[in-house]
Design brief:
It holds the Pfam family ADH_zinc_N. Its cofactor is Zn(2+). Helices cover 24% and strands 26% of the residues. Helix 4 (161-171) crosses helix 5 (187-198) and helix 4 packs across helix 9. The protein has 353 residues and is of the alpha/beta class. It is globular and about 65 Å long. It has eleven helices and 17 strands.
């Protein structure tokens, strides 16, 4: 039978999130039922709640950085058992057979991935609802194993911020002997620094904020360069094999291209949209440099990232909040007033309601 669960939902683009009840589906033979312990708060949650992208249907329950314990499994489930600590990230299904899915890149499913909230179930068409809720029911192939020893609170943002930065670092071969720069020190940027450092790269933070040096070095940065200082940027010309650009709003990429080494790559992971001012292609053509984009990661890459974090003890720096604090947290997100990721303790959900 379907299970009625308590959650927090946005009911319009202009109203605060509030308590909301809805039915999770009757578990199928390949489903895993999870009691949610923690859920990270992503900028995407805020954008979806406020319909910034124009596609939101209400009510919507955000949350795609989910950590919890398995409470039931379907008859065909072989990967998990009751009591396992697991995670659910940005996707809960895909076609499974297209060229992208076949290569483990379910986020690029040619039929369209089914996202954790704001999507439609591929079997019954019901709206998918996210992790600001008591429970979630997910197909076993989209459930991730959380390594023993990782703090579940700090592990929650790995399901989005972690995989978003892991994918380009892995795909563009960050490691010993490479020089990686990270643009921006927020939720994504701080994970990029931690992961790149653990992978063995020399890591530099490029920032417009002079006050971030101490924190960047604590996180693992070897160098900090003030990107608003032309002399300091000139001093790192031709230096970086890879730049991970985590800035979530339109900004000028042109100052960063000269800092790429020959055949270096700048990867956008924070901003989606037209570039302004226009990108000057001359230094790219002359230096065989690349500007690329990256979208989260597939299920195999996400599990690989979690296992890597388990071996290296990497989690996100988090501020744990109660469910009643979510609307204030959204306002603070707009001001970048968090170091570096909010995580909701879902034990506070019932008290909030």
């Amino acid at each position: 039978m379907p299970v009625n669960v308590l959650s927090y939902a946005a009911v319009s683009a202009t109203e605060p999130l509030r308590p909301y009840r809805f039915d999770r589906r009757d578990p199928r033979r390949d489903d895993v039922v999870i009691d949610i312990l923690y859920c990270g708060v992503c900028h995407s949650d805020l954008h979806a709640a406020r319909n910034d992208w124009g596609w939101t249907s209400y009510p919507i329950v955000p949350g795609h950085e989910i950590i919890g314990r398995v409470t039931a499994v379907g008859a065909q489930v072989s990967r998990f058992k009751v009591g396992d600590m697991v995670g659910v990230g940005c996707m809960v299904d895909s076609c499974g057979v297209c060229a992208a899915c076949g290569q483990g890149h379910q986020q690029h499913c040619l039929e369209g991935a089914t996202f954790t909230y704001g999507g439609a179930d591929r079997i019954d068409g019901s709206p998918t609802q996210g992790g600001y809720s008591e429970k979630i029911t997910v197909k076993q192939e989209y459930v991730l194993r959380i390594p023993d020893g990782l703090d579940p609170k700090g592990a929650a943002p790995l399901l989005c911020a972690g995989i978003t930065t892991w994918s380009p670092l892995k795909n563009y071969h960050a490691g010993p002997g490479t020089r990686v720069a990270v643009v921006g020190l927020g939720g994504l940027g701080h994970m990029a620094i931690k992961l790149a450092k653990a992978m063995g790269a020399e890591v530099t933070l490029l920032t417009r904020s002079p006050g971030k040096e101490d924190d960047a070095r604590r996180l693992g940065a070897d160098h900090v360069v003030l990107s608003s200082d032309p002399a300091r940027m000139a001093a790192v010309a031709g230096r970086f094999n890879l730049i991970i650009d985590t800035v979530p709003y339109v900004h000028d990429l042109n100052p960063y291209i000269p800092t790429l080494a020959f055949k270096g790559t700048l990867v956008l992971v924070g901003y989606l949209g037209p570039l302004e001012p226009a990108l000057d292609s001359a230094p790219m053509v002359m230096g065989s440099k690349v500007v690329a984009g990256s979208l989260i990661g597939g299920i195999p890459a996400t599990q690989e990232m979690l296992d890597f974090c388990g071996r290296h003890g990497i989690v996100s720096d988090v501020e744990v909040i109660g469910m009643p604090d979510i609307n204030d947290a959204y306002e603070r997100l707009l001001k970048s007033d968090v170091k570096y990721r909010f995580v909701i303790d879902m034990a506070t959900l019932r008290a909030a309601a």
